[in-house]
């Protein structure tokens, strides 16, 4: 079986072989500075995934294919964040997201979920992301630009409750905002029949208002999910749950328009 190899422009996760340090680098981007010395990323072009690379200080790393979450963790300027990777993954599942999808998002924030959605709709899809605060958009533009996802995103400063989503027609809408129930009439204007709306609610009151609003409109197959992840230490002799972890973050409500 032919091994997967790195191409210029790929993202690589560099994991120290005898330590806990790791970082992310763009393959073919020249030398990068790390706390373990310089790494020449040009040497990874054409190298198989899992290859060994040595820093200028003689420290060995393994080069693995990076996920979108690896890239965000290392390259993003994250402000206040409600949606965590575990929630983002479930949102992808709730939508059934894949290449070519057209998705609208209300509540851009720092662009975390925007980036995840854009990563999965590539290379033919698009994410329309709306936020009513210009300072959020400025951060999102910087973040998405750092990882070359701006070509798959249409960012707009807009209050979707007051002015809607414009003339777009999309396969799915994600609402990560303070009053998502007030945006559902606008969602119905933008969403294709059979399309999916996903609401991220951080309080029971917001969850209840959102579900009630969905039931009053033409939505079916309403579901509420809470995603809990419990991490364990992977150190031999110390295999136990982590002492501190993020468990509850919110509820993911999904429904389909008929």
Strand content: 25-35%
Contiguous helical run count: 7
The CATH level-2 architecture of the largest domain is identified as: 3-Layer(aba) Sandwich
Strand order of the largest sheet: 9-8-7-10-11-13-12
CATH class of the largest domain: Alpha Beta
For the report, how would you describe the main beta sheet? Answer: 7 strands, mixed
Report helical residue fraction: 25-40%
Low-confidence stretches: none
Compute the CA-based radius of gyration.
20 Å
Q: What is the element string, with H for helices and E for strands?
A: EEEEEEHHEHEHEHEHEHEE
**Broad structural category:** alpha/beta
**Mean pLDDT figure:** 94
In CATH terms, the superfamily of the largest domain is Vaccinia Virus protein VP39
CATH topology of the largest domain: Rossmann fold
Distance between the termini: 46 Å
GO molecular function, one term: tRNA (adenine(58)-N1)-methyltransferase activity
Protein name: Beta-aspartate methyltransferase (PimT), conjectural
Keywords: Methyltransferase, S-adenosyl-L-methionine, Transferase, tRNA processing
Domain tRNA (adenine(58)-N(1))-methyltransferase catalytic subunit TRM61 C-terminal: 77-234
């Amino acid at each position: 079986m032919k091994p997967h190899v790195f191409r210029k422009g790929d993202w690589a996760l560099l994991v120290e072989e005898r330590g806990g340090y790791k970082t992310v680098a763009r393959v073919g981007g020249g030398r990068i500075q790390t706390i373990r010395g310089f790494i020449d990323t040009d040497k990874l072009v054409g190298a198989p995934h899992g290859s060994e690379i040595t820093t200028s200080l003689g420290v060995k790393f393994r080069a693995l294919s990076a996920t979108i979450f690896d890239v965000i963790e290392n390259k993003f300027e994250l402000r206040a964040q409600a949606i965590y990777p575990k929630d983002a993954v479930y949102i992808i599942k709730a939508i059934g997201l894949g290449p070519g999808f057209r998705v609208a998002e209300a509540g851009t924030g720092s662009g975390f979920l925007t980036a995840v959605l854009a990563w999965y709709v590539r290379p033919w899809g698009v994410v329309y992301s709306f936020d009513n605060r210009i300072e959020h958009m400025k951060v999102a533009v910087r973040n998405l630009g750092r990882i070359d996802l701006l070509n798959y995103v249409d960012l707009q400063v807009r209050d979707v409750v007051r002015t809607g989503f414009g003339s777009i027609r999309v396969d799915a809408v994600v609402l990560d905002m303070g009053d998502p129930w007030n945006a559902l009439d606008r969602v119905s204007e933008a969403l294709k029949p059979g399309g999916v709306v996903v609401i991220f609610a951080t309080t029971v009151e917001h969850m209840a208002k959102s579900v009630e609003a969905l039931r009053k409109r033409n939505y079916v197959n309403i579901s509420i999910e809470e995603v809990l992840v419990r991490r364990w230490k992977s150190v031999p002799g110390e295999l136990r749950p982590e002492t501190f972890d993020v468990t509850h973050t919110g509820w993911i409500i999904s429904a389909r328009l008929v």
